[in-house]
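Question (not urgent): is this output format expected?
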Amino acid sequence: ALMNKASVNYIQIFHNHGKEAGASVAHPHSQLMAVPVVAPYVESILSGAERFYKSHRQRVYSVMVDYEQEKRKRLVYENDDFVVFAPYASRVAFELWVVGKRPNPYFERMTEAEKFTAGDALQKALQSIYVGLGDPAYNFYLYTAPCDGKDYPHFQWHIEIAPHTATWAGFELSTGIEISSIEPEKAATFLREQLKVA
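Got this back:
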């Protein structure tokens, strides 16, 4: 409903879990913000997807999904429609992405079946973090193509999950460069094992 308003160009859905992640209310909830601009970070991932396509004639998210399925080093979970993996250049320790196997820039254009498999993939990702890291604070963000009337055929809607396992200090605050204390391959192996325990 909000995406059809003339004043809305982007809708951001996010979830804060735990005090360190900014959760101000104790009960589980997600938030939706409808804004008149496309945020700079979202612009950067949209333009990155477009540049990759122009350079390689392939969709970057499809390439990532195919690679993670083939190599399986960073893969934590997959079902018929989605993969959960620790991204190659993880910004934080134990970061996970939930990405669809079918190219689709728009979250709202999921099929009925994908609603269930997306929920399953997100649940397994969060379960691996809960069990493996002892219920840490975390944020997750759902990135979807803007509703600004433009077309974004090379983007892929996805969810990024960022557990809070460390505190930003002088280096991170002064440079904006985030440090992950574990390689994504090791994080994925550890989190994959947690799903066997749970």
